[in-house]
């Protein structure tokens, strides 16, 4: 008996993009009266980032969100923990740091 084939017999075509979506999982969200582009990433870049929501590091290999204002450049991209991005409306505008904390 031959093994069962678990893949589809025909190729699945990607759906056309809907309003608010760009490439793949990239989409726009409104925050502080501005449109922001948000993209979930797998965290496989091998770099450490600092989340602007909680001011903690995002280690390599941890999935997170990259967000930037829609009409801004590449330099304005920020890497957020998913929970921090989802809670951005409930958080205060100023992040409290200790005296010796780095200012990244």
Automatic annotation (TrEMBL):
Region described as Disordered: spans on this chain: 1-30
Basic and acidic residues compositional bias, start-end: 12-30
Compositionally biased region (Basic residues): 1-11
Organism domain of life: Bacteria
Protein name: ATP/GTP-binding protein
The species this protein was found in: Streptantibioticus parmotrematis
